[in-house]
Write the structure tokens for this entry.
Amino acid sequence: MDIQVLTQYEKSALHERQPLPEEYLRLSDREMASRIGAARRTLGSRVVILGHHYQRDEVIAWADATGDSLKLAQFAASQASAETVIFCGVHFMAESADVLTAPHQRVILPDLAAGCSMADMAAIDQLEVAWEEMRTLGVTDVVPVTYINSTAAIKAFCGEHGGIVCTSSNAHRVMAWAWERADRLLMLPDQHLGRNTAFRMGVPLDRMVVWDPELPYGGLSADQLRAAKLILWKGHCSVHTRFTVQQIERFRQQHPNGRVIVHPECTHEVVQAADDSGSTEYIIRTVRNSPEGSVWAVGTEIHLVNRLANELAPTRTIVTLDAMGCLCSTMFRVSPNHLLWVLEGLVAGQVHNEIVVPEPTRTWAKVALDRMLQLP
Ligand code: 13P
Ligand code: SF4
């Protein structure tokens, strides 16, 4: 494998990642389900399985709790009894869970290669350079706000520099908190969540600038930075930026009374053209609570959309906004085979693919996460 083409997570995982043994690839669905059930019964309350809404059905079926990033982080922080949390999601979620659980609890990510391409778009050394460059330009009144879709190192930087973490469901509240403390925010890694949230809060687009970490000084002048209320890191989600305004127009032609709901990681144009936007949990709640007979186009990951469509048929019609269906390929890395392997490992006293956030990153990342969790 060419190391140049590996993501940050894959590179770190090369040293630690325990690959799925061959024998776990040859099982029938039936055998897998029966062995997962048996291991689960043996382990009892020693293990808790968390599942993000983008996980496939065969994994979600075993989750003790499902949710968006905020709900799962709150769950991890609040339950102190299970020895092991198996996080069926992606790397940054499992890292946050490790930071938020008690020292005697361990967190397992069934496949360590389940990363997030957006989180990879902000490396800690790039953030350190950006911070220094802003200071050189005399721009110091800045609070760093990181989306939870970021590495523990980025969260730790925010914790240490008076900043905070947000998720897609509390970005509004978190950004309001940050603007009470400084004239401007640096929001990373997702420019779209930052722009969409700030615009909704009344910040005009011309008070937002985009910091390109590949360019000296982010490609910005001191005057541009001083005039900005919001400095957006040039990062994005490759899944959600596939949704387009044309797809929304096509859906509206076919379903004039239909409604469109999208995730705020979509572009500003798409969020503006949709009827509503919000976190995965918000999307599910809104569609579930809609009147019978409603027709929805949903702009988020395909497993969530298909599951919701099956759950609510035939009383409501739910379609994906992108006819090709948007798959988050890293979420998809967690398979029932991986789940079985880590569960049977625990039964045998072996821990596979544990996530451990080292000190001092852990302490500072916890400061930033706790600031978010303590918001009213
Ligand atoms: P939610 O917190 O809305 O579930 O979003 C997580 C995510 O990665 C969306 O791409
Ligand atoms: Fe990351 Fe996008 Fe996948 Fe969410 S959907 S985990 S932001 S790559």
